[in-house]
Design goal:
It contains five helices and five strands; from the N terminus they run E-H-E-E-H-E-H-E-H-H. The protein is globular. It is α/β, with parallel strands linked by helices and about 140 residues long. Strands 3-2-1-4-5 form a five-stranded parallel sheet, with helices on both faces. The chain starts with 7 loop residues before the first strand and ends with a helix.
Length: about 140
């Protein structure tokens, strides 16, 4: 049974700044929570432009964007006690770090396990299987 997770921190891919951002954030907004009051804190690459949510139809506070280096923000997001989950896209080392740092507060963690995902390839970029299949 799907249940609301709560507040989730998201580390977006830097290869596809806009597409990766929407691919990871919109499912959380649409289906991952029981209400729009559960905010998503998104870590976006500091060198890439992002869409302005201040002009969107989303209520204020639903998506909070924090720009910076993902490797630096990951530690803060993973160790933050007020976050209920973290969704991290990165290399194998970054994914392992997200898991290791989240152990202390029992945060749910989803990663790409260091695999490259082509966000322009529909079978690769859609569905739960891309985030839950273990690497071999």
């Amino acid at each position: 049974m799907n249940e609301a997770v709560g507040t989730v921190g998201v580390v977006c891919p830097s290869e596809y700044p806009l597409l990766g951002f929407f691919t990871m954030v919109l499912p959380l907004v649409a289906a991952g929570t029981q209400s729009l009051r559960c905010p998503r804190i998104v870590s976006a690459d500091h060198g890439r432009p992002l869409p302005g949510f201040e002009t969107s139809d989303l209520p204020g506070g639903v998506v909070n964007i924090v720009a910076g280096r993902a490797t630096e923000l990951l530690k803060v997001l993973a160790e933050h006690d007020d976050l209920d989950g973290i969704w991290c896209y990165g290399d194998a080392e970054m994914c392992a770090t997200a898991k290791a740092l989240s152990v202390g507060n029992l945060k749910q963690v989803w990663t790409n396990e260091g695999r490259h995902i082509d966000f322009f390839n529909i079978p690769q970029s859609e569905g739960r299987c891309i985030w839950s299949t273990p690497t071999r």
